[in-house]
Amino acid sequence: MSTNFQVRLPENSKPLPAHEEYFFITENGVERCLRLHDYAAVYSIPGLYEYLLLEKLNYHSHEFMASLLNDNLKNSGESIQDLKILDLGAGTGLFGQAISKFGIESIIGIDIIPEAAQAAQRDYPGIYEDYFVEDLTQLSPTTGEIIKQKKLNCFVCCSAFADDHIPGIAFATGVNLIENQGWVLFNVSKNCYECESNCPDFVNFYRQLIEQGYLQIHCTESYLHRHFFSGHPLEYVAIIAKKQADIPIG
Question: Does residue 135 carry a pLDDT above 90?
Fold first, then answer.
């Protein structure tokens, strides 16, 4: 990958929490410090996010989850080409690009960060049928109606639930935008998945959805999500479910 920047990783022997991880970037002879989760700043630099995730941190989630979804549809006797996907927290389009390789033509992206939409158009043009900059905790009626008319049958959130980035109401709103019996695919860190007390709000929320019958689990699988800047592995669990009914909100 040809880049116009140089990246220097910190010399940390122990992994920092994901939301605290930082690095140094030099552009035009000037070095500055950014956090990995400073998404607006990171997305605005062409190639930086992919360079960090793919080349430095060995990020796998986008390809692993796309393949897992394809395998599960095959085992269910369904064709992945029939999916119409809502990709929440779509970012620069890594998951959209990975799932499009299976022949899916209808993918709607949505993210709260304008720079994400700009990066997706810049880096992966043509992947998304539409890409909306929206906050799903207060989705505009116009966007909601546009999405509903597309009769989507799959909701995906790839790697956007860490540190409660996306609150439960946004997840519920996204799930409600697809049809009943549609596929729901998301992932959480293995530590969160296995937690027994003081769990993140989102973990408590999705567990309640399962207990109350709004989601029916179809498959769970643990895997290497990526490495920390320190080199330590970060494991996640991918969760595939089917939507049984609209989730009450409010």
Answer: yes
